[in-house]
Every structure is written in structure tokens, then in C-alpha cells.
Amino acid sequence: IVSKLPQVGTTIFTVMSQLAVEHSAVNLGQGFPDFPMDGQLTDLVNKAMKNGFNQYAHMHGYMPLREKIAEKAGKLYGAVVKPDAEITITPGGTYALYTALTTTLVPGDEVIVFEPAYDSYVPAIELNGAVPVFISLRYPDYAVPWEEVREKITPRTRMIMINTPHNPTGSVLSAADMEQLQAITEGTNIIIVSDEVYEHLIFDNIQHQSILRYPALRERSFVCFSFGKTYHCTGWKLGYCIAPEDFTTEFRKVHQFNCFSAHTPVQVALAEFLQYEEAYLSLGLFLQHKRDYFQQLMLKTPFKALPSYGSYFQCFSYAHLSEEGDRAFAERLVREAGVATIPVSAFYSKGEDNKVLRLCFAKKATTLESAAKRLSDFK
Ligand code: PMP
Ligand code: GLN
Known about the structure:
Radius of gyration: 20 Å
CATH topology of the largest domain: Aspartate Aminotransferase, domain 2
Distance between the termini: 46 Å
Strand order of the largest sheet: 2-8-7-6-5-3-4
CATH class of the largest domain: Alpha Beta
Largest sheet: 7 strands, mixed
Strand content: 5-15%
Structural class: alpha/beta
Order of helices and strands: HEHHHEHEHEHEHEHEHEHHHHEEHEEEH
CATH architecture of the largest domain: 3-Layer(aba) Sandwich
Shape: globular
Number of strands: 13
Helix content: 40-55%
Bound molecules: 4'-deoxy-4'-aminopyridoxal-5'-phosphate, glutamine
């Protein structure tokens, strides 16, 4: 067959997790927690299954869950969201993003993508025949160069993708960034796809700048979320998309013939669990403590921390240690130090390499200690 993605190999997450297994390494590469999720939530899934919630869910998602999500969006972001017409539950955040792109892009459309970019974005753009227009976030603070965004907008610009808190860098967008985005897109047909899967993983009392806070942006946006990040259950693959009614109508046309509906018992359980606000409101501080502990442990290693304000990732520079490219360096680190990381060049189309590695700190203290110990012995 003719490959539709000739440039694409196996995702870096799978590559590094596989290497971690082969070398019995501590895996701080792929982003997932190694501590247990909340037992109350797994009990609720069992209860839903026992109570017979085992058949297809509503195509748009289990209504009580959509109602709870709308309530939460109202409380947190002051948004008025219609559960019937503006929320669709999806099998994961990646799927929500992909569906938003498939719903809107036609061949030749241009999509502005900030790099480093989460690795599903560009293949999703290309599979839809659209053209990614790359803009590098400014190293080392990974800020958005808004002047460049203005310059790169053409009559074919159909979409801008944003991600805050940001994977892989842990940077976050500020209110000033959102104002820039609003000014740039005002009076245009540009659609925004906002990846907010790390909405609650934000530190240092910074407020998450959801698109949902900005009515003028919200009316042109698909906003995508993931329960996997919020409840420490990345394997559940459940998320959702909030978008205005006309966008959602089209989104659902694609969704209905792709997977039709998402996992029923998990939706039923989440509809009940969402009432415990503390579970997501406490997440930022919980992970902030992990970030701080990890940063402190890493002071004993030769690696230099870049700032992380959100997500569960912390980037480290090794530029002062080696001339090696980050992929080769990361592979050597697995083999020689027994620690798996993600080379950040994997998130750039042209492999831009600032000699930075991404490490995931959503791990038990003992895991972080063991990784830092191994890295401090690394020569
Ligand atoms: N976007 C970003 C930036 C992510 O890091 C992830 C995590 N995998 C996702 C989307 C996808 O989430 P999900 O696992 O729910 O598909
Ligand atoms: N989002 C996770 C990460 O960035 C992994 C997701 C995946 O493996 N596709 O590490």
C-alpha cells in the first residue's frame, strides 16, 4: 500500500517505553502516573457495570456526565455550556483533537502549529490534506512569538492549535497571550483547537487560561480535554470536546461513523465522581509538590532544569554535558544510566535540537529518587 504518512515512524513514547523495558530502566519517558488512581472511582466503575450500564452509551455521551461537565465549566471558567448541544464525550483527548481537525480541515488549508508540538498534531493535520505552518516557541522560556504568528497568517490559514499547560515543556499561556490570540483572530474565519488536557495540572497559583474564559475565542474553538490526566487513569482513554453548537453538529457527524460512542461504565462512574471537586482542585498542588521534590533531587545530578509551570513534565538541558544529539543522548541514558526520558527534538518537524530532555514526574517518590540517583552517577 501507499503510505499516507511516509515520514512517520513509531511514536517516541512507544520507542522509549520499549527501550525502558529492554534495559530495566526507570521510565520517566512516556507520561503516565506510576501510583494508583482513586479507589472510589474504580469502585464506581464496578458499580456501573454491576448495575447493567454495559451497552452503547448515547452517541454524544452519557447525559448526566455532560451535565456535570457543563456545571464544572461554568464554575471554573464562567462559561455557559449547553450539555445537549456543545459537549461530546470521546474515547480520549487525542481522538477529540483528531476529530476536530477532520471535521474542519480541507486539503490545502494551513494550520499554525507551535513547536515543540505534541506528536499527534502534525500527522492529524497531514492525514486531512492540510499543511502545517510551524512556529517555534522561543527557547528557553517557550513563549509564543506573536509577531511571527501575525506574519504567518495567510488567506489559507484555517486553524491555530494551542496547548496549555504545554506538553512537552510545561509552559503555560497567560491572559496576555489569550488577548493576543483574540486580537489576531478577530474578524477572521480562523478556528482554534485548544488542547487543555492538563487544565488541572498547573502550579504556583497560576490560573489556567482556558479558551472557555474568553467568549470571543470560545465561539471559534474546539476545546479538548482528557479524564486520563485528571484522574490518573491514562489507560481509560476518555475525554471530551466542548465547541459551539454549529461546530459540535459537524464534529458529531464525524464521530458517529468513527467510534459512535465511548465506554459506558466509565462515563457513568465519572458522572458521579465529578461531584467531588476536591479530586481535581487538589491536583495542581499534589503535582507541584512532586515537581519541587524532583527538582530538588535533580540538583544532585549534572542536568539543568528549565522551568515547568504545568503538565507533569519537567525539561532538563544537558547542553553543557555533551555535543550528542538528544535522541542519541536519551538512548545512551537508558542503556548506561537506566533512566528513560523523551528527547524534545521528537516534537519538532525538522528535529530542532536544543539538547533538552523531557522527564515525567507523575511518579512515586521512590521512583523519582531512584531515577535521580541513577542520573547523579551518570558520567
Ligand atoms: N494532548 C496532549 C498534549 C497530551 O499530552 C495527551 C496525553 N496523551 C493528549 C492530548 C491525549 O490524551 P488522551 O490520552 O486522553 O488521548
Ligand atoms: N501524553 C503522553 C506523553 O506525552 C503519552 C501519550 C502516548 O503515549 N501517546 O508522554
